[in-house]
């Protein structure tokens, strides 16, 4: 009998209360019981044949606890005439039913089931006689996904609740997928996504956030996850098969020329008219694919893959970090712990075009064009109370900042299939970015200052890749790459006289950082048999960094200069061998490097051996246990190499005592995961250990006007231990999804404050997130996310202990009275530090949508920050200071939108 909505809500309330009591009273027992009930299970396997001994494929096998049972406890289909099932742990008796077209149904009963046992039973099916039956209609709820080999297809409509606008909103809720909102990186089962394809073609490259942030949900029919992915078809079955990609399959109506127009205008509290406009165009033909987007908004949205507000790096920047120069002087705009959309007071114009043309069946050309123009403003203040050996010192800075980034970039990629066995790829990127930042500063409530920072970043890189498939089992690749990154910065600080309000003195800091790289590499890869693969590479990587800085005052008196060239040469060979022994995968790696460094008169040579080992055990079709360990060494980059002071901000100066020592790293990872799509259950648990020998530490000296950082090298070891846990389950009885996610991090670190001794500190960082959402077949549903953070630091020498605790809760009510109307309200409550509970923040947002049936347009009404919260306060304590940070929010606004899809 169907449960009423009231009973479901009562059950949900009782369940959450019970779960909360268990978590609060003894969370360790909860996790132990959960693991013990999911890790250990019983396995039954066998084969299915007909009376002639022929294997039968695609037979459906289900497990119930009795003949007339309504619920299916486990399910699978035969492949190559074989089947394998994992039985629920608490099952004492099982009825196994097998059905397949043209054969008679067969059953087998298994009684007195023992934990962790493995059972075997083979079926022999008899042909079914032809019997004329009356028409029977069977209806069942279709699964929201299908699995076909290495590809899992998720039906977008099945995972949508109506709140989603762009396809990234659907990707975030797909089982096994995690999205980093700051970087845009997508992972599946813990593995980073290589690319997001559009109808099978890699249109966006590493900047796939262009597609995921801007393609409308209504355009996409399926999100496909492709495991064992190979970007180069010539390497299929030869290269490493541990890569993952996404593919967006469009609806048939969009397999030509389609798009959408968004026009949104509204009222904003104390600012210009709120606006959010966008145009998206999608073109798909047999030989041509393109996606273009153009947008303008001043409500804090970032539609580009580049972040100029919080300076988070995107996927491409993280992958290219070794070939990119670093801007030494950072913009003064500081981000906070909330989403950027709460504080990013912007005026952003962004446009992008991506096109792929198949000139010939063997030749294709791809182009990507980017243009960005923005103006970001912020009002912030920082107050510090420093506990120094000399006594207590209080400082403060109030900032009124504006930053204007301008970016123009073009990518070109040419692919040519030279023959059935060989291909050639050429890629080139030009990126030109200019940024101007203006800041007015009130220091210590008395001293008025103004600062300007001009940054010009020019980046160029190109690569040529030749691939030749020698045999069915062997392939050879040659890679040549060249890059150049030139960053020029000019920072001016004006000190204003208190009496005349005129500029009293000026300091100018000029920096130029140029990095050039060149690489040649040859890779031989292959498979010895169906169970083992290998690759062997040899190459040379050369990197040269030229750094110049000049600090002078208004009298053109030179205060400090730096001028050095740092060159490294890395001659290496790298061997990888991978073998699959049924359920166990072993991957070993050994890298040998002859590494040389030259910095002025300093010169050092090192011969380095870097081994690694990966073991991955497939416990059953849904559970994996893995361990990964590696030893490596790395050099330090230019920010640790300038020996004379550089002015980094209105208050901070930094210098270093450069050495050519290497940092030695030991990394060990242990991972256990379960991903059961059929049971809608997911569990991930990992422990990571990192130990490094040799780091640069900071000696900080603080006074009322300035702070001085001096970096020095020490061989003191640092240790970091992190543990992550995630469990997610859909509960059919409650029509709800529950997710528990936690992280624990422990680290040791050293510092020096105002000429103190090198002080050892440790830090414990714990986060706990409890998420629940309902999927009632009713007009109202709910969603809640609770995040608790505890940060505990301690100075070992003084035993001084410091705690920083935060709490954030987000509650949503989703109301859908019919197919045309949709309403959602969101309450977000944040305590940045529970020790300072007065600094709480409460947001209320609301959203209303009306979409007529079988129409291409829809209307929306948005209200953001309805309580009109003005400022964000956060107070943190460290081993030597109390820091209070204040920043302004985007004020309350209302936005009316019209969206037309064509």
TrEMBL record:
<protein>
    <recommendedName>
        <fullName>Outer membrane protein beta-barrel domain-containing protein</fullName>
    </recommendedName>
</protein>
<dbReference type="InterPro" id="IPR008969">
    <property type="entry name" value="CarboxyPept-like_regulatory"/>
</dbReference>
């Amino acid at each position: 009998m169907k449960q009423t909505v009231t009973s479901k809500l009562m059950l949900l309330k009782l369940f959450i209360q019970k779960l909360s009591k268990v978590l609060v009273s003894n969370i360790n027992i909860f996790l132990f019981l959960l693991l013990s009930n999911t890790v250990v299970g019983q396995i039954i396997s066998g084969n299915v044949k007909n009376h002639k001994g022929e294997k039968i494929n695609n037979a459906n096998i289900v497990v119930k606890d009795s003949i007339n049972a309504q619920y299916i406890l486990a399910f699978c289909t035969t492949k190559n005439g074989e089947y394998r099932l994992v039985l629920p742990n608490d099952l004492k008796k099982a009825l196994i039913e097998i059905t397949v077209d043209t054969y008679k149904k067969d059953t087998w009963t298994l009684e007195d089931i023992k934990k962790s046992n493995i059972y075997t039973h083979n079926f022999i099916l008899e042909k079914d006689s032809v019997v004329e039956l009356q028409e029977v209609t069977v209806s069942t709820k279709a699964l929201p996904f299908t699995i076909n080999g290495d590809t899992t297809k998720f039906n977008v409509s099945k995972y949508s609740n109506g709140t989603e606008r762009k396809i990234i909103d659907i990707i975030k809720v797909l089982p096994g997928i995690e999205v980093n909102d700051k970087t845009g990186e997508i992972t599946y089962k813990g593995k980073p996504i290589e690319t997001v394809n559009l109808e099978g073609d890699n249109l966006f490259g590493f900047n796939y956030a262009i597609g995921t942030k801007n393609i409308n949900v209504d355009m996409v029919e399926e999100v496909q996850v492709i495991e064992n992915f190979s970007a180069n078809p010539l390497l299929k079955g030869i290269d490493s098969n541990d890569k993952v990609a996404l593919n967006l399959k469009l609806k048939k109506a969009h397999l030509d020329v389609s798009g959408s127009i968004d026009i949104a205008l509204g009222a904003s509290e104390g600012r210009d008219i709120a606006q959010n406009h966008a145009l998206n165009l999608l073109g798909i033909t047999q030989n041509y694919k393109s996606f273009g987007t153009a947008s303008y908004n001043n409500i804090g949205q970032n539609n580009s893959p580049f972040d100029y507000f919080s300076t988070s790096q995107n996927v491409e920047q993280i992958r290219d970090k070794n070939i990119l120069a670093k801007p030494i002087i950072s913009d003064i705009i500081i981000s906070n712990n909330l989403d950027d959309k709460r504080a990013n007071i912007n005026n952003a114009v962004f446009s992008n075009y991506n096109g792929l043309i198949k000139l010939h069946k063997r030749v294709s050309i791809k182009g990507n064009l980017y243009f960005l123009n923005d103006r970001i403003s912020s009002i912030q203040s920082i107050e510090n109370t420093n506990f120094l050996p000399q006594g207590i010192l209080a400082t403060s800075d109030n900032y009124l900042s504006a930053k204007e980034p301008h970016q123009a970039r073009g990518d070109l990629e040419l692919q040519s299939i030279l023959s059935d066995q060989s291909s050639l790829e050429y890629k080139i990127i030009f990126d030109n970015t200019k940024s101007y930042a203006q800041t007015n500063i009130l220091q210590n409530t008395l001293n008025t200052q103004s600062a300007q920072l001009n940054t010009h970043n020019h980046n160029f890189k190109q690569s040529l890749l030749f691939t030749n498939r020698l045999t069915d089992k062997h392939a050879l690749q040659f890679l040549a790459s060249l890059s150049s990154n030139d960053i020029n910065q000019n920072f001016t600080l004006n000190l204003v006289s208190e009496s005349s309000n005129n500029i009293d003195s000026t300091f100018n800091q000029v920096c130029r950082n140029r990095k050039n790289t060149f690489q040649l590499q040859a890779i031989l890869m292959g498979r010895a048999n169906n169970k083992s693969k290998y690759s062997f590479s040899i190459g040379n990587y050369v990197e040269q960094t030229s750094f110049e800085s000049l600090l002078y005052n208004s009298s053109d008196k030179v205060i400090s200069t730096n001028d050095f060239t740092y060159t490294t040469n890395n001659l290496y060979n790298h061997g990888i061998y991978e073998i699959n022994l049924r359920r166990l995968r072993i991957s070993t790696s050994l890298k040998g490097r002859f590494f040389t460094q030259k910095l002025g008169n300093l010169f050092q040579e090192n011969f380095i051996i870097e081994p690694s080992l990966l073991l991955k055990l497939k416990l059953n079709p849904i559970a994996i246990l893995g361990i990964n360990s590696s030893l490596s060494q790395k050099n330090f980059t230019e920010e640790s190499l300038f020996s004379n002071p550089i002015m980094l901000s209105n208050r901070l100066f930094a210098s270093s005592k450069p050495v050519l020592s290497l940092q030695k790293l030991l990394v060990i990872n242990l991972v256990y995961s379960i991903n059961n799509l059929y049971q809608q259950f997911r569990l991930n648990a990992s422990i990571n250990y990192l130990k490094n020998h040799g780091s640069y530490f900071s000696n900080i000296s603080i006074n009322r006007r300035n702070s001085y950082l001096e970096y020095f090298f020490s061989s003191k070891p640092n240790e970091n231990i992190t543990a992550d846990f995630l469990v997610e389950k859909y509960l059919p009885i409650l029509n709800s999804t529950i997710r528990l996610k936690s992280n624990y991090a422990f680290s040791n670190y050293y510092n020096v404050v105002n000429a103190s001794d090198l002080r050892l500190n440790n830090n414990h960082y714990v986060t706990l997130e409890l998420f629940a959402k309902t999927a009632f077949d009713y007009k109202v549903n709910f969603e809640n996310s609770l995040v608790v953070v505890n940060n505990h630091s301690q100075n070992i020498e003084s035993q001084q202990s410091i705690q920083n605790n935060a709490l954030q809760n987000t509650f949503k009510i989703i109301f859908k009275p019919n197919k045309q109307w949709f309403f959602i309200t969101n309450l977000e409550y944040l305590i940045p530090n529970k020790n300072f509970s007065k600094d709480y923040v409460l947001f209320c947002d609301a959203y209303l949508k009306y979409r007529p049936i079988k129409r291409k347009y829809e209307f929306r009404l948005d209200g953001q920050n309805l309580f009109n919260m003005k400022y964000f306060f956060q107070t943190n304590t460290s081993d030597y200071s109390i820091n209070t940070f204040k920043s302004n929010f985007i004020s309350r606004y209302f936005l009316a939108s019209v969206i037309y899809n064509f």
